[in-house]
Amino acid sequence: MKDIEDLIQKAVELQSNGLITAQIADELNISRETVVWLLTRSKKEETTPAPKDISVNWSSIGKSAKRLHNVSLALCDMVLETMEKINAEVDVVVGIAANGIPLASMMAYELDADLAIYHRKGQESVKTGHRGIISRNFGSVAGKNCIIVDDVITTGSTSTEVIEQLKEMDAKPRVVVVLVDKKGVDTMHNVPIQSLVRIARLD
């Protein structure tokens, strides 16, 4: 997507296909506030300035299993470096649905660890206080050292949600690893954040 008009068109298209704001934000790797701004701008209702956000398009990696594998190796290297510092082994790789799953699957294979999948409940979960779930069809997390894998950290709300959920399940979240960190923090709830790319806005 080359410019803002492309983003607007894609957001409108995703909404017309039934996706809610949180799902559109995940798909476009932008904040929910930016999605709302794009959708209102598409209706010529928006007069406020655009939110400070950056769209991340990593489809050139996502469309190639070979590239995904190579990127997952780099993420594994960062994870192992972090785990060495705390003298712990990786027991479970937790992939956040949907974009974190391909990377998490490959990383679990490389690290000889179990694979767990975290399903988010979407925007309505924020209002009701309900969080997502760890799928019963994959690995269990209770009492285990877990690494959390996603594609992009935008606001950090998803990573925070997963960390809190894992702790409630008596799991040990050890590190969050992502392709791109747009928030630019070193830790969340005392869990280190590792990224291949960190975006820093110069204001």
UniProtKB/TrEMBL annotation:
The gene is gfcR. One of its GO terms (biological process) is regulation of gene expression. Keywords: DNA-binding, Glycosyltransferase, Transcription, Transcription regulation, Transferase. Belongs to the purine/pyrimidine phosphoribosyltransferase family. GfcR subfamily. GO terms for molecular function: DNA binding; orotate phosphoribosyltransferase activity. Residues 79-183 form the Phosphoribosyltransferase domain. It comes from the Archaea. HAMAP family: GfcR. Contains an N-terminal DNA-binding winged helix-turn-helix domain and a C-terminal regulatory domain (or effector binding domain) resembling phosphoribosyltransferase (PRT) domain. This is Transcriptional regulator GfcR. Pfam families: Pribosyltran. It comes from Methanosarcina horonobensis HB-1 = JCM 15518.
